[in-house]
Amino acid sequence: MLTLNHIFESLAGRPLGSRQTISEVVIDSRRATPGALFVALPGEQADGHEFIGDAFRRGAVAALADQDVHVEGDATPYMLDLRQPLTDEQVQGLRLPVLLRVDDSLSALQQAATSWRKQFDNLRVIGITGSVGKTTTKELVAEVLSVRSPTLSSEGSYNNEIGLPLTLLKLRKRHRRVVLEMGMYDVGEIWELCEMALPHVGVLTIVGPVHLERAGSIERIVKAKQELVEALPPGPEGVAILNMDDERVMSMAEHTQADVFTYGLTPKADLWADRLQGLGLDGIRFWLHYKGRSMKVRVPLLGRHSVHTSLRAAAVGLAEGLSWHEILRGLQTTSAQLRLAAVDGPNGSVLLDDTYNASPESVNAALNLLNELDGRRVAVLGDMLELGAYEAQGHRLVGLRAREVADVLVTVGELGATIGQAAIQGGMPKARVHVMADNEEAIAYLKGEVREGDVVLVKGSRGLQMEQIVTALSRAVEGA
User: What is the model's pTM?
Assistant: First the structure.
């Protein structure tokens, strides 16, 4: 079990002598439970240092802080300043709760996580990165590996310098594998995540212009994602699982000492699939091929693009020595379908909720799913953010695909308007294109427009909060 003594020793270099267990490590005081360690971090909306007292009142036994704070009332903590040598009297006089003053709370969190990860000699670590499909791949990989042994995976999209160490600190002796999503905005960030996690297997999805605005160029994104395979140990302990259908991903094969395992829709790949059949809301069906063996597979994931997700999960299973029986059993799970969900809409319609995030690749994949479904197809598409120089072209390409798929196109936001303009320029009648300034306008229009038998896809970048549209339309069903 994770103990306060381990946290203290990893930061101060000496034992604390306390056997107090740490139930969990949190950065939100509202999630603090008895036995928790609270890490105070500055945020966009609030500074965590303001909530240290709240965390203690909820039962936290310790907190990390990089500012001088004063906690009043019953939650007044014992103070230990780790920036200077501690006396035996200070350590021996410890009582709970304790506030540990450090130079930098985030660095201290990462340092503790790095030290804790190294306690697990028999652990296998799988890292996943790419521009699209990281989270769903992570979930399905974890489902496959869990068939064989206890497997930890990062919560939600905990894929950055904060989320990854929080996941590592959840490791317990029962775990044999951990599956970690690794995100980035620029070069060097994935390398830092790998220094904490020490991955054995690296999975690359695809490389596209997501975060191009911050990274500056697609070449720089490739270089940043490539850091995962560069960090892997030599084969056979290390395995780089690469998408043969993406030239940018395959260029990384020359930059790793690990064994390379390829997947894709071409027989040139080690593991490949063909005869894809979309089953609409019932999932997808395809044939898997590996070393001369072929298997017909059906999985409950939505959209033809999910075949690549399935291939990645199967590839990790093979790399980790699972049998085909175990792999196929893991692929049948329904809990990994977390990004695109079908929910009831107003007037007997169906809503496809894919509002987590958006890029040209992921929007076109969602439109391809919409194209497989019966009924009048309504595409509600919003801004795709952080595309940099690819912004205009990316929105135009989505508009042209929407013209081919959608019976009705509703756009949201300034960049979303570019999607609508491109669809009209591509030949879609103006009467079928509706450009909205914000979610409220879109909701008002859709409530009066959506009818029985419609399939409504809602997708846009996280910054637009288009889940508000899904929530409003779903509530219209509840109030019917």
Answer: 0.79
